[in-house]
Design goal:
By secondary structure, the chain is α+β, with helices and mostly antiparallel strands. The protein is built from seven helices and four strands, in the order H-H-E-H-H-E-H-E-H-E-H. 26% of the residues are buried. Bound molecules: flavin mononucleotide.
C-alpha cells in the first residue's frame, strides 16, 4: 500500500513516499540490505561528530532476541510489530565520550540517524515504523545496556504487507489519510509566531 504525502510544496519522492505502516510482509530482509540501512545511519551528521547512537537489531530468525525486543513493546505496538521481520532499539549515549559532559543533542542525533536509515529503507522498497511505545527499562535489562546509554525508540522494519489482513484498530489507522500541520504554522521569521513570507 502506498500513502504518498499530500505535499504543499514539491519534495523528493523518497520523502513523499516514506510512511509508517503497521502491515508487514513475512519476507525477510537480506543481510546486504540491513548492512546498507545501518551504513546510512552511520553517515548521519551529529553534534561534534560524536555519533552517540547504537542500534540493537533482532531479526525474526533470531527468535530469542526477537522475543526480547517484542517483550519491551507496549501491547498496542506488539500487536502489529510482531509481524515485522526486523525489530530495532535505537539507543543514545547521553554524555560525550571524551569528557563525560552532557550531550544535549544526543537524542536529536539518534533521530537523525534513524531517519537517514528510514530514507535508505524507502529507497529499497522497505518501510520503517518507529515507536515510542516501549519500556526503556525492559530493554536495558534484556540487552544489558550500560549506564549512560538510554533507549530512545524502537523500530519495526520490513517490506510492506497487506493492509486488509490487519485486525482492528490497526486497519482503520492504516487506511486513514496522512496529515500534517500546515507549513505556515511552524516556519517563522522575524519574531516567534510570525509566518515566514516564503511559505504564505
Ligand atoms: C519517535 C516516534 C515515536 C512513535 N511512536 C509510535 C508508537 O509507539 N506506535 C505507533 O504505532 N506509531 C508510532 N510512531 C509513528 C507515528 O505515529 C507516525 O510517524 C506519524 O503518525 C506520522 O505518520 P507517517 O510516519 O506515516 O508519516 C512514532 C513515530 C516516531 C517518529
Amino acid at each position: 500500500m502506498e500513502k504518498p504525502a499530500p505535499v504543499e510544496f514539491p519534495v523528493h519522492d523518497l520523502i513523499k513516499n516514506r510512511w509508517s505502516p503497521r502491515a508487514f510482509s513475512d519476507k525477510p530482509v537480506p543481510k546486504e540490505v540491513l548492512q546498507s540501512l545501518f551504513e546510512a545511519a552511520r553517515w548521519a551528521p551529529s553534534s561534534n561528530n560524536e555519533q552517540p547512537w547504537a542500534f540493537i537489531v533482532a531479526t525474526k530468525d533470531d527468535q530469542e532476541n526477537f522475543e526480547k525486543s517484542l517483550g519491551a513493546l507496549i501491547e498496542f505496538n506488539a500487536g502489529w510489530a510482531r509481524k515485522a521481520p526486523v525489530l530495532v532499539i535505537a539507543v543514545a549515549e547521553l554524555a560525550f565520550a571524551k569528557n563525560n559532559a552532557p550531550n544535549r543533542n544526543a537524542q536529536y542525533d539518534v533521530g537523525a540517524a534513524s531517519l537517514q536509515l528510514s530514507i535508505e529503507a524507502t529507497s529499497r522498497g522497505l518501510f520503517v515504523h518507529q515507536m515510542a511505545g516501549f519500556d526503556p527499562e525492559t530493554a536495558k535489562e534484556a540487552y544489558n545496556i550500560p549506564q549512560g546509554w538510554e533507549p530512545i525508540a524502537a523500530m519495526a522494519i520490513g517490506y510492506p504487507g497487506d493492509a486488509s489482513s490487519l485486525p482492528e484498530p490497526y486497519q482503520t489507522r492504516e487506511k486513514a489519510p496522512r496529515s500534517r500541520k500546515p507549513i505556515r504554522e511552524f516556519v517563522m521569521s522575524g519574531e516567534w509566531g510570525h509566518t515566514a513570507e516564503f511559505v504564505k
